[in-house]
Amino acid sequence: MTDLPVAARPSIQSATHNVETVLWVKHWTDRLFSFAITRPPSFRFRSGEFVMIGLPGETEGSKPILRAYSVASPHFADELEFFSIKVEDGPLTSRLQKIVAGDQILMARKPTGTLVLDALKPGRRLFLIGTGTGLAPWLSVARDPDAYDRFERVIVVHSVREVKDLAYRELFERDLYDDEFMGEEAKAKLTYYPTVTREAPPPGVHAGRITDLIQSGALFRDLGLAGDRFDPAEDRIMLCGSMAMIKDVAALLEGQGLVEGSNHEPGDFVLERAFVG
Ligand code: A2P
Q: How far is 53 from 76, CA to CA, in rounded Å?
């Protein structure tokens, strides 16, 4: 008897989905990880869109288990990156967190979503506000030069419980500014605004829920902006993350005179709930 080498793991078959190969996996914490898969030539998407990905059912003949994941790569990338939580008893993530390079996963043939620049009216400042893995679509939008062509400032707000949950901090604090193609644009226009809610922040990190930072005006003061509220004429906002945060921030935005947009009718802000479970 010999053990099967990794390369001989059984391959997945699907008549309905693309079958893609895992290229790399990075574990950030015991609750967060990222991975990338091959991009089929036929798969087109706009930066900020999501797609259903998953694994076959565990028993023969059972349905595949798929969840919506924002693509974290920009639309021109060769590989498709994703940012995920790990839920111990989650039907998908309990298994997905064990994937390694060379494994295969399922992906729907078409993406969709409202967290796209086309769903926003023109403006001067773009706020990309996310909690937890709700950062994923901003990894796509903030790495797309189109965001910097359309806006004078791009502000990525990432709210997490603890500093260790600030995945991709180095990308936003260093790598994007050093990037060969985007570095100059990023230096001129991109601001990263991390905030933690359950421990004292170290230098460079803010403290408090995004709702409180908006209501108190601290967000605007910290960013050096005039005024202490959003300006419907100039500010455009995208929201992604926990359901409660989205509901509460959307209500604040509406209270400040901003109107929700969609692919059909661009507006001042758009929202999408992050994948959970
Ligand atoms: P808090 O720690 O005060 O709950 P989670 O890990 O639970 O998904 O939370 C991610 C981040 O979202 C945390 O910083 C959390 O703050 C914040 N958050 C959760 N619900 C809300 C809400 N209704 N309004 C603003 N921030 C929220």
A: 19
